[in-house]
């Protein structure tokens, strides 16, 4: 029979059963017989809906509700309803109200006869399942109560009911049914120690956690606030004392959930939980390690750490802790306390605490955008070394309440306010600590710290009243000091302190309780006397006159609207119960003395009624109390009703004379005073941008914990995460300017890296091959080496990233660099910079040879085994795959690592690679903005501090310092660099260091000089001068580098005066003294003359070059004439350019030219191009006397030179005569002297020369001179013309007279005269000397 065929029969049978069979067995039988057919028809929903829900369900519901059916029959009926409910749940339309009522009745009124435990379990399980389905349609609270009954049953049935309750709670809170509050209230009542429920506390707490985890986190319903903030938190705190670990686990879970659900109105409660539960569990009482108690306490501590770990993985929660507690003046430093305790546990070796510390630092770094993610510990069920979080962390959702919560830190102004609050709180704590330590100078210290404005009693009293951390016993002693004559200031403070209270709206006993709750009453009667007197005076004042109101008449009933606000001190409220009435208390006292006497009487009554050692029959009765206080009110009695009410109030609630701070009480005390504790919780604030202050608070303890983890952990996953977190720590501290903390952290890492390098330096080269070694299983040397190499990598990388923050840790870095240099692993830093084309000097070869010998000696007797495999290479400089690590932690097969197929590398290669990828060489060689580095480099291996000889190794290290410091000198430390380099250049025992000093000076000169200030330029020139003064034994071997550097200086630096050229060329002159440097000098001079002769002439620097070239041309350097022609060409070019500018020339430079260009042809070109006025008459006279007229020629082979020389003299003397011959002054007499000398020189040639050409040329020159002397400007009295002609005639020259009208033309054109006339020889200027030299 198909389902469709069964439908009519099913319908008729159901109708028949429901109308004609009254017996309970008949519906049961029908249900049993039709269940199979019903399941067959289930697939046809339209047929079932057509039957009608109430008609279809009625027989099954009646069976379920019948008390005469067995558990099996009821179970079958329940199964049918479940099938039908599933069908309705999948239908397009929900059940009708009548159908839904049948379902609810079936669940609530289910009855049956138990046949067996198994059948009962099945039946109740189906009831629970049906209840969960019904709750999806209607969250009826009665369904929940029915399942509570089932869950209360013992054994498996109860557990089934508990699971059903979890489903119901999830449904109700997900769908936001009205029953939410009722369920939460009921569950809270079940947590009460006085509850008679049989439900396990752990199950109730678990249900509460289900509710919290599915509660709308933005729900600000006051009903929830009342339940959660009141009894729920109170009973959770109570159950935190349990020895049942399951209960404790649920309590801790509930606290975590409360932070997300209701932190906006549970600020105080959450503080109490963390302080009294979590942190308390971290410090169990001492017990023997092998005892059961010890194991139990360890488990509880472990659970507390699990809970704290969930907080650590929620950066939003951590920010909330910091903002709402550490930055609140009335709360404790909760965030700091949590982190400090975790750090202590981490240093004790607890791995969960270690993960927590890492998460906190990375969370802060994540907030500052310095780290991509928070490392999570690997989950594992088989390995105890791998720790998992107890629950999946959830992203925090802010809970906002407009009346009490807000946001802090989102903008700069709010963040500054928060920072100032934290700083002020720190000051308050410091001053409070001084007071609590009985420091007599605490008041001036408070003024100094800005906590109080003045040392007046008013400011001191207000501070003691408002500051919550003041020790109550110390405060009582301070306020009660007397007598007033001896301690007037304390008496005044007591009066001002009491004036801070407002008792105007409190009854007498309420006022007394509030007053005494702020401090501990001292034991001495006189001290109590003073305190009670101050109290009574303030009470009478408040009762007599309201704050800001009129004077109250005795017996008047003063009314106020609403509840009066009680001012009892910041962060505190009146004890419970407090009777605050609409009617303000009347003033029963006629004066303050009455209040004083009654205060004493009340304290005595309090002691009498609550003394445990006193028998009940001996306690004071109300009649006795009334009788004892008669006539104390200025001779009259106080109202009897007033005294009776006072008696009853004291009897109901004791006045705590020696009460401690509620937050410092034990859990039982906190639970007892819960209403008082949470009366003024304040609002919760969401914090943003506070990570900097958070990090500052915890920097010191977390650094210590990180160092311990790195040094001791045996977990590779924790180790790798710790290195990552360490980088985050350093980056964060550097970013916010905490240089001391940054350097401390970096120093610890460098020490570990250095120890590794020292340990493996003897086994650097031989490769190690073998199977893949899983990091988690590493032990012994392998694990130590891996840790050390990671430390080396991290320290180098962090240094390269944060050079501006480097301070004292740089000294450790230098030692590490020296060590790496000895292994050849320094990259560019290991190769000193030199000028292009320079080979290694003998000094460099010597130091490198010694370095190699030292390294070989270090290897002797040590194993040379390599160890670094492919996987480790991935971790160090590749993309490490944490998936394999996770697999290993879970006892799974690790994925094949492609890196393992690669050949292993040696330790040396590994270290070199680590240094390479760190980028430190590039960072150190680049100009830096950290002058500290430069100064440290120069002082670490300072020549100035070394009076004795040092080793080659010290010299080698000093070279590294100098090289790095030179590159950073632009960033600062110029004076130190200058002084250190001057000291280096003055050395005689460290030639390699001197060589490097020379190179660094010249390179600095090249890169800095043009843009430098005047003082720096002066320093650089002084340094160059110092190079020229280096001892000859050293300078000889470095002359090539000096010359090469000076060559670049001359070509690249723009000098503006001759002094600069003079300084540099003096060093050139020194370098040219040695063959190694002479060629570089000649090349340098040639290049600069060829490229920039205009600049040389303009600045006057050409004179210094000419002087050096003259020495090269004259063979002054070791008689070397190989550069003679090259030097003469340079001199000729410079001279031609200088003469062409028309500049005046002095004797010195002209004499140099004459000495350098000492052949007749060269000198004729050089001197012949000079205009007469470019040299003074004195210079001309000296040149003729010292050069021109003293030149001697041999007899053989020099007739041509003599003729050239004679022509030059004739031309030059005529030029001089034209310029100075017409002047009637002293110059003419000087001129006559050289003219006469030239005429005599020509006469000697004409008479004595063996060559006719020379004689004829001499006669012709003399004839030309005679023609010039006939010019009109030289004639007349005293003129040189007639005198000159006379001199020619005296010498034997017959000078013919030239036609007057042709004189000027002949001279100007340089042509001959007419026929029969003597030719005039005044030639045109000769071609440039450079063209002659080039031929």
Describe the structure.
The structure is a single chain. 64% of the residues lie in helices and 1% in strands. The chain contains 59 helices and four strands. A two-stranded parallel ribbon has the order 1-4. Strands 2-3 form a two-stranded antiparallel sheet. Helix 1 packs across helix 4 (53-65) and helix 13 (245-261) packs antiparallel against helix 14 (267-281). The chain is elongated, with a radius of gyration of 54 Å. GO terms for molecular function: guanyl-nucleotide exchange factor activity.
What's this, in brief?
The chain is mostly helical and 1335 residues long. The chain is built from 59 helices and four strands. InterPro entries: Mon2/Sec7/BIG1-like_HUS, Sec7_C_sf, Sec7_dom, Sec7_dom_sf.
Write the layout of secondary structure elements.
Blueprint: H1 3-20, H2 25-41, H3 45-51, H4 53-65, H5 71-90, H6 97-108, H7 117-135, H8 141-151, H9 155-175, H10 179-191, H11 201-213, H12 222-239, H13 245-261, H14 267-281, H15 292-312, H16 315-326, H17 334-347, H18 351-367, E1 406-408, H19 412-436, H20 442-448, H21 457-466, H22 472-479, H23 488-498, H24 508-517, H25 525-544, E2 558-559, E3 583-584, H26 592-610, H27 622-628, H28 640-652, H29 667-672, H30 674-677, E4 685-687, H31 691-712, H32 716-735, H33 739-760, H34 780-801, H35 809-822, H36 842-859, H37 870-877, H38 882-889, H39 907-918, H40 920-925, H41 931-940, H42 952-968, H43 974-985, H44 991-1008, H45 1014-1028, H46 1032-1052, H47 1058-1071, H48 1075-1099, H49 1102-1114, H50 1124-1140, H51 1147-1156, H52 1160-1168, H53 1177-1188, H54 1199-1220, H55 1226-1248, H56 1252-1269, H57 1280-1290, H58 1303-1309, H59 1329-1334
Parallel strand pairs: 1-4
Antiparallel strand pairs: 2-3
Helix pairs in contact: 1-2, 1-4, 2-4, 2-5, 4-5, 4-6, 5-7, 6-7, 7-8, 7-9, 8-9, 9-11, 10-11, 10-12, 11-13, 12-13, 12-14, 13-14, 13-15, 14-15, 14-17, 15-18, 17-18, 17-31, 18-31, 18-32, 19-20, 21-23, 23-25, 25-26, 26-28, 27-28, 31-32, 31-33, 32-33, 32-34, 33-34, 33-35, 34-39, 41-42, ...
